[in-house]
Amino acid sequence: MTETVTTTETGTTTDTADFWFDPMCPWAWMTSRWMGEVEKIRDVHVRWHVMSLSVLNEGRDLPEEYAALMERAWGPVRVVNAAREIHGQDVVKPLYDALGTRIHLQERGEDLPAVIDEALAEVGLPADLARFAGSDELDASLRASHQRAIDLVGDEVGTPVVAVNGVAFFGPVVTPSPKGEDAGKLWDGAVAVASIPGFYEIKRTRTSGPIFS
């Protein structure tokens, strides 16, 4: 799923990283903001793909509150997937940004119909794409995109998933999102450890929720 693009004007190469996200996941949102910083200071171009926490959690015994969240989470990811299917890959990131700003920064995750309508309008996409929030019409392609991420890292993780240069990893889970050279250092380290055969996990207790700064 990854490739290297050569920039002929300078003779340098740009790595293509693939990033899978669910629009409802606050940790994926944090990581996506970090990935935007990485693009500024490393020779990396990001391609954005959907995966789905709703798909990931199908058939699992979930607490009632989280099960309700997973039911709501179908809407935004289905709309992004439909926009990609009908209008092309280039709309994925702008639509994700518009949805995520409202869901995470404005804390409007309980108001998804309005959030979806506003996000579509902001990026100039047809309003009737909102109907896909409640439709399984294009779920086959959504599930296929999700499965590509899971095939890279396994089904014991969530979103986001990042793949580059033949290696893939879940996360990183980080807050607040690093900026500048700190973002670059985290990228270098994540790619380095993920490239080691047999490497699985570095972890410590999370003591803070997402800091949307």
Automatic annotation (TrEMBL):
Pfam families: Rv2466c-like (PF22234). InterPro entries: Rv2466c-like, Thioredoxin-like_sf. This is Disulfide bond formation protein DsbA. It comes from Georgenia thermotolerans.
